[in-house]
């Protein structure tokens, strides 16, 4: 398997150690903008940044990139911390906010103005765009580009003091309007924006742009390797320009890698927020969401997500990862770890007519035949049990090895039963099945050598606990919902199926919220930590048993 040690970024770091480029240090950061909940794509970045630091004896900061006050909220700051911790990473005492640096960033800007490297521009946003030119056409210099140092300093101070309207002026870098790289054509460094910031309140009415704040925040934190996704490759010259123009003590280096795209999923926070706000899902932590909180609530383990991030590897080339791989990772993890229990999702009553009325047997049942360490529990067996409706057919096709009139099957951990007859209601629907059992076939201790082809899961009717089970399917029907029409037109109308009448074995009644099980023959399920309570058991299907991942 691939480890972070074998990716191209680790190779760069190894070279940097050899040349002593960063004084033998490795210091990375994970820099989320607190404008939404983290998703599985962020998990890739978290595993990479924290992983690189861990493997090289370095450090990784958590930095909130909070330079965009209108879109940011405290709720997101909190959820991000919870998610990073849950994934298993520790930033120690190195949690920072870009907003901590607002004063320093302002002073750096003053320095740039003083050195003739930045100017206040009065062009409107439309004019700035127009003047910028295109890939085939050089840009045009702003008429304000030649303002004197003194005028610029005074105007920038007045911008900060709140003397000008939002959007009426900006501070721009003075670089090169003819640069083949559009990002270098005098990019905006500061804008005027009256919005209450989640930390600095109304203290500021000018805010630094990402391309200015990010390299300087990295430098202030003495980051060595600033790892970001490939869409910032064209911004790297500007990243380096800012460090050089300000003449920072530390010179971090930006390295880009391909962002994760997952099939049948959208990943941008903007789109995920739309799903939440327009009630297509129940919230950011809806178990169908690709958010870390959604995956957690669904029942995914942090180990499975870290394993997934390791398997997909880190490269420069953009690709689409099959959702089946993520599902494969959780199956691999839970196969051994999860207790295997019995739950009947669509119950059909079976009466075992030769079993004494009122008798209850406690059957010893191991939790996981592949993992004896999980031990066993007792399950009650009695005269009336529930089996799965799908496990009975009155007129079965060939090779149907389950229950039908005259057939014999084993009830898991219990006895072999034989179907004697079917009882229907007035509409012709099957309501109950009468069977007989063979007392010599008790699992583990029976004397009979009888063999049957089918084994069914079941629960004792008198002892079973009622539960709601939520079956999830992929949220979108199209492999790439970002392609073509509006992504919401590809929402899967059947992504949630509610089963309100399930019967589960009594050992599950007191299971802890969030705990995970294999329901025999069905898949992996977890107790919904939000909606499940003493009066109502709610299970989420994490994933079915059938693995469609092509190894
Ligand atoms: P979105 O478009 O979903 O809002 P973003 O990149 O704007 O994503 P940030 O909060 O800025 O979101 O991301 C924090 C870090 O996570 C960045 O370094 C970013 O490159 C990385 N990241 C975001 N999405 C992905 C992804 N799909 N795959 C890998 N890394 C990602
Ligand atoms: Mg971003
Ligand atoms: Mg974004």
Structural features, described:
With 551 residues, the protein is α/β, with parallel strands linked by helices. Among the domains are: 4-257, HUPs (Rossmann fold, 3-Layer(aba) Sandwich); 341-463, Beta Barrel (Ribosomal Protein L25, Chain P). Helix content is 25%, strand content 24%. The protein has twelve helices and 27 strands. It has a seven-stranded mixed β-sheet, with helices on one face. The chain has a seven-stranded mixed β-sheet with strand order 21-18-19-20-14-17-22, with no helix packed on it. Strands 4-5-6-7 form a four-stranded antiparallel β-sheet. Strand 25 and strand 26 form a beta hairpin. The radius of gyration is 31 Å and the shape is elongated. The two termini are 12 Å apart. The mean pLDDT is 96. The structure holds adenosine-5'-triphosphate (ATP) and magnesium ion (2 copies). Residues 31-33, 41-42, 44-45, 65, 228-229, 259-260, 267-269 line the site of adenosine-5'-triphosphate (ATP). Residues 31-33, 41-42, 44-45, 65, 228-229, 259-260, 267-269 line the site of adenosine-5'-triphosphate. Its main location: cytoplasm.
- Which value, in Å, is the CA radius of gyration? 31 Å
Main CATH class of the domain at 4-257 = Alpha Beta
CATH architectural type of the domain at 4-257 = 3-Layer(aba) Sandwich
Between the first and last Cα atoms, what is the distance in angstroms? 12 Å
How many DSSP E strands?
27
How many H/I helices?
Answer: 12
Q: Given the C-alpha coordinates, what overall shape results?
A: elongated
User: Which percent bin holds the helix content?
Assistant: 25-40%
CATH topology of the domain at 4-257: Rossmann fold
Instruction: Give the structural class.
Output: alpha/beta
- Say which molecules are bound, naming each kind only once: adenosine-5'-triphosphate, magnesium ion
Name given to the CATH homologous superfamily of the domain at 4-257:
HUPs
Strand content: 15-25%
Give the rounded overall mean pLDDT. Answer: 96
Largest sheet: 7 strands, mixed
How is the largest sheet built, in terms of strand order? 12-25-26-27-23-24-13
């Amino acid at each position: 398997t691939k480890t972070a040690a074998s990716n191209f970024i680790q190779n760069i770091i190894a070279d940097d150690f050899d040349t002593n480029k960063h004084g033998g240090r490795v210091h990375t950061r994970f820099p989320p903008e607190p404008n939404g909940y983290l998703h599985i794509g962020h998990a890739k970045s978290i595993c990479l940044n924290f992983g690189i630091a861990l493997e090289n004896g370095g450090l990784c900061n958590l930095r909130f990139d909070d330079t965009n006050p209108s879109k940011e909220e405290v709720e997101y700051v909190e959820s991000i911390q919870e998610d990073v911790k849950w994934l298993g990473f520790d930033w120690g005492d190195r949690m920072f906010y870009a907003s901590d640096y607002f004063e320093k960033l302002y002073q750096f800007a003053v320095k740039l103005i003083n050195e003739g490297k930045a100017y206040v521009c009065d062009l409107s946003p439309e004019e700035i765009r127009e003047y910028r030119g295109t890939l085939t056409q050089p840009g045009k210099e702003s008429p304000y580009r030649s303002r004197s140092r003194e005028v610029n300093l005074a105007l920038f101070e007045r911008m900060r003091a709140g003397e000008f309207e939002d959007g009426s002026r900006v501070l721009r870098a003075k670089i090169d309007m003819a640069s083949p790289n559009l990002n270098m054509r005098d990019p905006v460094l500061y804008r005027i924006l009256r919005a209450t910031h989640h930390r600095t309140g109304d203290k500021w009415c000018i805010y630094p742009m990402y391309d200015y704040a990010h390299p300087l925040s990295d430098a202030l934190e003495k980051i060595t390797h600033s790892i970001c996704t490939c869409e910032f490759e064209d911004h790297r010259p500007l990243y380096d320009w800012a460090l050089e123009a300000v003449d920072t003590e530390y010179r971090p280096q930006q390295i880009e890698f391909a962002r994760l795209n997952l099939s049948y999923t959208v990943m941008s926070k903007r789109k995920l927020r739309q799903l939440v706000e327009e009630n297509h899902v129940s919230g950011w932590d809806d178990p169908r969401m690709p958010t870390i909180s959604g995956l957690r609530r669904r029942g995914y383990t942090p180990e499975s997500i870290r394993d997934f991030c390791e398997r997909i590897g880190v490269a420069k080339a953009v690709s689409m990862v099959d959702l089946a791989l993520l599902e494969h990772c959780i199956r691999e993890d839970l196969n051994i770890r999860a207790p295997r229990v019995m739950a009947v999702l669509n119950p059909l009553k079976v009466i075992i007519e030769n079993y004494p009325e009122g008798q209850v047997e406690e059957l010893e049942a191991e939790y996981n035949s592949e993992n004896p360490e999980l031990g066993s529990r007792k399950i009650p067996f009695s005269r009336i049990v529930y089996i799965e409706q799908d496990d009975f057919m009155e007129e079965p096709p060939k090779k149907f090895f389950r229950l039908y009139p005259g057939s014999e099957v084993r009830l898991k951990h219990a006895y072999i039963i034989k179907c004697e007859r079917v009882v229907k209601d007035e509409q012709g629907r099957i309501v109950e099945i009468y069977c007989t059992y063979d007392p010599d076939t008790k699992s583990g201790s029976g004397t009979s050598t009888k063999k049957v082809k089918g084994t069914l899961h079941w629960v004792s009717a008198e002892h079973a606990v009622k539960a709601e089970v939520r079956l999830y399917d992929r949220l979108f029907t199209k492999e790439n919902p970002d392609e073509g029409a509006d992504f919401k037109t590809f929402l899967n109308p059947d992504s949630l199926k509610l089963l309100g009448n399930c019967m589960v074995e009594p050992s599950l009644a007191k299971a802890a919220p969030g705990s995970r099980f294999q329901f025999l023959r069905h898949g992996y399920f977890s107790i919904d930590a939000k909606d499940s309570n003493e009066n109502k058991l709610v299970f989420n299907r994490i994933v079915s048993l059938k693995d469609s991942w092509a190894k």
